[in-house]
Each structure stands twice: as C-alpha cells, then as structure tokens.
Amino acid sequence: MSECVCCGAIIPEGRQVCPDCEIKTRKNEERYNAFVTYPDGERHFGSGTMKEIAKWVEVELLAGADEFHMQKVKAGDKHG
C-alpha cells in the first residue's frame, strides 16, 4: 500500500493520487472549446482540458484540417 501525494490517504500500490483527490483535481482543470476547419469549409468541434484538446487537434490536423481555434470556457459555463 502507498499514500496519496495530495491528502495522505492509503491507496493501492502503483497509484499516486486517491480517487477523491483525482476527481477534485479534474473538476478544477480549465476547460476549452475548440474547432478545426478543413479546406472545404467543414468544421469539427471539440471540448475538454488542454491535454485532451491537444490530442484531438493532432488527430484532426493529421486528417487534413488546416485551421484551429480554441477558447477557454468561463467558470460556471455548462458548455464544455
């Protein structure tokens, strides 16, 4: 057994953070809305954390998207 690096709770070996602290951290992460545009004008939309958006945009750019826009979601906004 190991201890959570955030709160000291006992957690299974191999984890660094307990489930409660992991959930709290995710709730506090900044979220973003983004879209990519393809040469034919088609747009694909996505939302998530910076890390999630980065992965999504990489896939879209490899698929041929040629433009990318991103905006931070305001605190309390239900969209995103």
Write up this protein:
This protein is α+β, with helices and mostly antiparallel strands and 80 residues long. 29% of the residues lie in helices and 28% in strands. The protein has helices at residues 19-28, 50-62; strands at 2-3, 10-11, 32-37, 43-48, 67-72. The strands form two sheets. It has a three-stranded antiparallel sheet with strand order 4-3-5, covered by helices on one side. A hairpin with a 5-residue loop joins strand 3 (32-37) and strand 4. The longest helix has 13 residues, at 50-62.
Search tags:
80 residues; three-stranded antiparallel β-sheet; two-stranded antiparallel ribbon; alpha+beta; elongated
